[in-house]
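quick one, 195 residues, struct below
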Amino acid sequence: MSIETLKSYLPENALSFLKIWFADYPIHIKITRNRNSKLGDYRKMPDQSHQITINSTLEPDLFFFVLTHELAHLIAFEKFGRRISAHGNEWKTTFAQMILESLDIYPQDLQLILKRFSKSPKANFMSSSDLVRYFHFDQLKDDEVFMESLQIGDRFMYREDAYKVEEKRKKLYLCINSTNAKKYLFKPLAKVQKV
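---
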């Protein structure tokens, strides 16, 4: 992929950071169709080059954030060796430094969220309720709510099954399935339909 093609997916002024971060590495970036299971992916190829895939449907700020996440894998593995944990301390430190280094390209309200996030980066941005709200809040359908907006005893639908909120456990919600009486844990930002 040419740098000009990549530029069309990025926020303004992001390219200068990528030129620094890409510097010494042979990288192939593939823009993919939307994948529900992941936003991006990093792999070291058999020929020792690096491949990063990123969903084409991401808005520029999220695209750059995901690309930074994946590049942090490459840089951490190259700097500390292949035996480090994929989302261990070396990756967290690398990712946090890259976020803070490039902070000015993001809108001010997102900068505040990213500063907090960089103190302890998560492997999956879905684990950061602030980031999920920032990037996805307006994508709720008319009949959807986030799990965190429900109260104990509320009933809701999730994937055509009915549930009742039993209790909140730290950050997760323990819920009982109305059909089979099994208990399930839901994340605060799971999208459900309140009934």
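The chain has six helices and nine strands.
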